[in-house]
Specification:
alpha/beta; 5-stranded parallel sheet; 12 helices; globular
């Protein structure tokens, strides 16, 4: 909210210094890791590559899913949830050491290192991870693309700060945002998330097909955000079993990374236009995975 309100930390130097020191010593990060932490971890000894990856599209609930999976005593978390690139040869400092993994194995009988990033469409990640760990398992989180688009819109406005509409005139209303996106597809109007086009991010079929081809269907486990939030325990324990781990009941917490701003409900016309746009793409996806996720039959959003 400080970022959204464009508040300056210069008026609170002691608070800034305290937060800065705390940030340097966090056990886990949501995004960017302080460079000094990565530099120091070069001296920790040989490090492992992840045994599995949890991927999804932006604004699909991957942060919450990752937080629940990291609760399992046999899963070793990376230093950050979002490494942000698919160059596996540069991943070393982000992951546990071989010694740390061996200690978890000794204590729990099993040990898996995980990679967590909403990078469903990242071709480099798919191909490089396949080359580095061809036997890895993939957990894939998918969300109804219409709901995801509305969440994308809200996040765009939050990241653009309270003055964002002055520099991002294409989002004054959700109807405007959707209209410009549909008009410009496959290009995208300027937003605060230029590498994540609002419509293209919700077209999953090509990326999913690539993951299935790279890692084999039996090694890919697909869950939907709708099923996850409807029954977190069942979804998380199902993933534990897929990974070959004993199911451990997750400790429930509030929804993470929730947009702190209040927004009006999306207008029905924009939702209908989005649903019509995604209908053929969804059908292709359902054919590829051999499963109808029910998105084309929905009439009400879950935003």
């Amino acid at each position: 909210m400080h970022r959204y309100n464009r508040d300056s930390y210069l008026g609170h130097p002691l608070r800034s210094a305290k937060l800065g020191m705390r940030y340097l010593t966090l056990p886990h990060y949501f995004g960017r890791v302080p460079p000094v932490r990565l530099w120091l971890r070069r001296f920790g000894g040989p490090r492992v590559l992840p045994d599995f990856a949890c991927v999804g599209a932006l604004k699909s609930g991957t942060t919450d899913l990752a937080s629940y999976l990291m609760q399992h005593p046999s899963i070793l978390a990376p230093l950050t949830k979002e490494i942000g690139h698919g160059y596996t040869q540069l991943w070393g400092p982000f992951f546990p050491t071989e010694r740390e993994k061996a200690e978890v194995l000794r204590c729990t009988g099993q040990a898996l290192a995980g990679h967590f990033d909403p990078a469903l469409h990242d071709l480099l990640l798919i191909d490089n991870y396949r080359a580095a760990r061809p036997e890895a398992k993939i957990v894939m989180m998918l969300r109804d693309p219409v709901d995801r688009a509305y969440s994308h819109y809200k996040w765009d406005l939050f990241l653009s700060s309270k003055d964002g509409l002055c520099v991002m005139p294409y989002g004054k209303t959700f109807a405007d945002y959707v209209g410009y996106a549909l008009e410009m597809f496959p290009m995208s109007p300027p937003t605060t998330l230029p590498s994540m086009p609002v419509l293209g991010t919700g077209v999953y079929v090509n990326a999913v097909a690539r993951w299935l081809k790279a890692f084999d269907r039996d090694n890919v486990y697909i869950v939907t955000a709708e099923d996850f939030f409807a029954d977190i325990s069942k979804t998380v324990c199902g993933i534990h079993e897929f990974l070959g781990l004993p199911a451990v009941e997750p400790v429930r917490h509030h929804i993470l990374n929730r947009n702190p701003l209040e927004f009006p409900e999306p207008d029905e016309d924009s939702l209908a236009r989005l649903r019509e746009f995604y209908r053929p793409w969804n059908e292709k996806l359902f054919a590829v995975i051999g499963r109808d996720l029910g998105w084309n039959d929905r009439s009400a959003p879950s935003c």
